[in-house]
Structure formats: C-alpha cells, structure tokens
Amino acid sequence: MDIYLLEAIINGILLGGVLALLALGLNLIFGVIDVVWIAYADLVMCGMYMVYWLYVGFGWPLLLACAVAIAGVAVLGVLVHVLIIAPILGSAPINQLLATGGLLFFLQSFATLLFGTDFRNLGIRLPIIELGEIYISTARLLAFAIALVGAIALYFFLKRTFIGTAIRAIAQDRDIVGLMGVDQRRIYLVTSAIGGALAGLASCLLSLQYDVHPFIGNTFGPLLFMICVLGGLGDMIGGFVAAFIISQIISIVGYYTNTELAYVLAFAFFIALMFVRPRGIFVR
Amino acid sequence: MNARHATVLAGLAILLCVPYFTPTYFLHLLIQALIWGFIYTAWSMMGRFGFVSLGHGAFMGVGAYVPALLWNYYDVTPWAGIPLGVLLSALLALVIGYPCFRFRVVGHYFALVTLALSQVVMLSIIAARDITGGSLGFTPRAVGDSWYALQFSEKSYFYVIALVLWLGGLAIWRWIDRGIGREALDAISEDEEAAASIGIDVMREKLRVTVISAALTALGGAIYGQYFMYLNPETVSGISVSLQIVFAAIVGGMYDMLGPTAGALVTISLNEGLRVGFGTHFIGAANTIYGILLILCIVFMPRGIVGMLQKMNKPRPSAKAVPAE
Q1: Are A63 and A208 in contact (CB under 8 A)?
Q2: Which burial class, exposed, middle or buried, applies to B142 when counting CB atoms under 10 A from its CB (0-12, 13-18, 19+)?
Q3: pLDDT of A242-254, one tens digit each?
Q4: Which pTM value belongs to this model?
Q5: Is residue A95 less than 8 Å (CB to CB) from chain B?
Q6: ipTM of the complex
Q7: Contact, B261 vs B252, CB < 8 A?
C-alpha cells in the first residue's frame, strides 16, 4: 500500500476526532432545543482567540488558558441561548437558524474590528512522531485523543446523571417531560452550556494546529453542518460516525487531487446522500 | 386607482431623471442598490413561502461566471452568454430542487442542502483556478463602450439597465402574487400534505417558483459582473453571499414587494455611511452593527422594515399566516 495514502488516511482519522466532537455539540443542541446554531463554528473562533490572548497576550500557562477558554465559550453558549434563541423559541425554526446567522456576521466582524484580519498562532511547535516512514503530528494525535475522551465523558454524563437523563428525555418528547417535573428552561441552559463547552474544548485543540483569524469558522463551519445532517440532525452517534466519513473523503481525495476539489466532492457526496437518506445515513 | 397609477408614473419619471442631477458616486450606489434589490427580490419569491434557500450564492456565481468566462475565452457576446448562464442556473435549481421536493427535504434540511450547493459552486470556482483565476478573482476583458460586449464607461447606461432589471423583477413578483400559483404556494407553506390532498401539484408549484427565483438571481449576478467588471468567488458565490442575500431580504421585509429593495437600500447606505464615517480604521464596524441589527430584526420584527411600516400605517387583519412570533 502507498505509504503516503496511509498517512492521508491516518490524518483523516485524526481530523475526524475534532470534527466529531463539534458535531456532538451541535447535535446535542439540535436534539434538545431544536435549533441549528449556524454560528457554532464561530464560537470556536472566539474560544481560539481566548486561548491566544490568555496564553500569548497575558502569558498564562497553557492549561489554565484552555480551562478558562472552555468556561468562557460555555458562558457564550448560555448567552446565545438567553439573548437570541429564548426570545424566539416559539417562532418558526428557520427564524432561529437565521438569527444565529446574524450572530455569525456579528462575531466575525466584531473579531475583525477588535483583532484585525491577521493570522495569529500560539507559537507552540509540538514534535512530529515518526512511525517507520509515516509522519504524524503530535498536535493532531493529542487533539484526537482528547476529543475522544471528551465524547466519552459526554456519553457517561448523558447516561449516568439525572440531568443527562432529563436532556435525553427532552430530546425524545418535549411535551411529556414537562409533566414529569423537569424544568425545561433549566435543561435548555445546561444544554447550551455543554454545547458551548464542547466548542471551547475543540477551540483549544484546534488552536494547537491552526492559526486563528476572524473567518476561521467559515473553513469548517459548513463542513460541520454537512456532518450533522449526514448523521441525522440530533442523532449523536450518527454525527460521530459521519465526521469520520467526511474527514476520510477530504483527506483521501485531497491526497489524490487538491483540497478544494476534496471539499467539493465531500459536499457533492453529502447532497447526493441527502436524496437517498434524507433523515441521515442511519435512518431509513 | 387612478391616483395610485399617477403616483407610480411620477415615481418612475423621477427614477428616470435621476442620472441627470445625481453625482456619480450616488449613481454608483443606486446602481448597486437596484442590482442587489433585484437579487433580494428574486430570493424573496421563494423565501416568503418559507422555502429558505442558502444556495442563492450558487445561482449568482454561475450567472456571473458563465458569461464572463465565455466572453474572455471564446469571444461569446454577453447577449448569448448571459442567457446561457441563466439557463444553467435554472438547470442547477431543477437538479437540486427536484430531489429535494421529491424526498421532502424541508426546513433546516433544505437550508443546509442548499448551503452545501453554494459551497460546491464556490469551491469549484476556486479549484478551477487555471481558468477562473481562483481566489484572486476574474476580470472580464474590457473593450470600452460597446453594446455588443455590454460594457459602458458611462454609469447612466448601467443605471437604466439596472432600473429595467429591477422593474422586471417587481413585475414578476406581481405576476406570481396575482396568479393562481400564489394561493397554492401559500397553502403549501402552511401544510404540504393538506395542500396535496386538495389537489395542488406541490412538486410543480415549488419547482416553478424555485427555478424562477434561481434564474433571476443568475441574471442579477451577470449584470453585477458586467457592471463591476470584476468577479471574486467569495463575493458572488458561497456561504457569505447566500447569507447576505437572506439577511438583506429579511431586514427589508420579504413578504412585501418593495421589502427586499428596502433591504438593499438600508444595507448599502449603512455600509457606505459607516465606511465614510469611520474610514478604513474600523474594518468590520459596518458588519458588526449589521449583525446586531439583523438579530434584532429577526427577534423583534420578523416582517422587516417595510412590514413594520405597513403595520403602523394600517393595522389590517391579515389572512396570511406569518411564520413569526
């Protein structure tokens, strides 16, 4: 087997980890609150700027900066819900999607206003692992591992705690859950916070690999929605698997041709699959 | 009715005289407002029935790039290139629309599938950088004033072209509004199953309005290209244009004929005002305010500016359900 192809496949799997983490967050919010946060990838951008400024700007230790960024994006998530989603919870779902689209505009331009369009990075160079002739970036491997841990932690939180059970229940039937004595508004807040925290975690992992700039959300935001829809909006396991399918397509096609064509094919694949399996690949 | 006709005629006369007493700069803004107003109107033709497409960047990109590429590489006059681009866009709308409607891809799913479409077109343009110039953009070959090439140095020519385009858009809006299809589309946007059960051909009605909307958007994109003489994949296709179109239509009010145009006027004057006011010091200031305005609009006045004004003028009982509040 071609050694470079193998490298591309491994890189695809590693890339899939962070995408899967983000897909989990987006799907959680969709499943519970029934809202698509178009600006989800831009919350990640905010998180990356937090890590950057705390670590490079104020010289905090990296782990502390990351912890604060995760908490910070979680708070942002709650704010998004309270300020934007909650007032229009009763209106057509598409209005909520568009309102978060307004947020996307706002976050991107506000970041441009504050920080300019410069690309900034943490200046951390993690070593490259050599496995025979295959080179693997430690930053990616680390991101993959932590993303996986995050996903497993979320799984246990949803399965084993009372509030996790309530969250799953609300995703199944929002009307009955209220009768069972669950405070719907509180669950929405917790869900938004978890969704934000997952975006925060992803932003820490991504800032090790990529430069941050105001429009970084555009590079993987659309990809993220494809992944969620492909897995079935709200279906967390489906989204998790779809993340790896999409990232494989991108890295393998990208290996044979170029990145743009790889994305074109990934999106075209998505559109085609949408017609075969309109409610996600795992739903008949 | 006569008074109304008189008002419309007087308005038209004023609009036609505008180039004679307007400074070039304002004429430039007006042309932009008319072209964008036309595109926003085209989007609203679907949007008002609840088919929220985030794929209009794709149609605009095809409409803008096809005639420009044909002109530069094969010397095909835009008079042939533009209809071809429009036709291709209409075909694209059919290819995406048919399966979408066939398999009941609606709401979020429709928005996201069309979003993917606009990304496909933008990334394809970037990927074909040997032909299209990729992210650096594409400049149609300039030949000076020529009807054959549809290029004019004098802005008043484009003003009239844009004006005719915009009026045509309004005429088509009215035609859809008055036609039998309007009732059918209203019914479909309320409840597809129920509409089908009373004998409405859901597929045909939806496809028709989608194709019209896509074709007009492509036409707008083509005129945009002829006027600016520069195309960039980021500014005529992809997610940002798609969102720009949707938002301006919402801010202006997508349920009224003049709403999308009002959206174009407001967004362009806001952008220009902030640009002139702040200079280039605050890149992004305009869009920051725009973003806040947008969220406020969707939360507090989902019918947009024009809808709001109408409501203040005459609180009439509206039979049409609005997907809001």
Answers
A1: no
A2: exposed
A3: 999 889 988 888 8
A4: 0.87
A5: yes
A6: 0.83
A7: yes
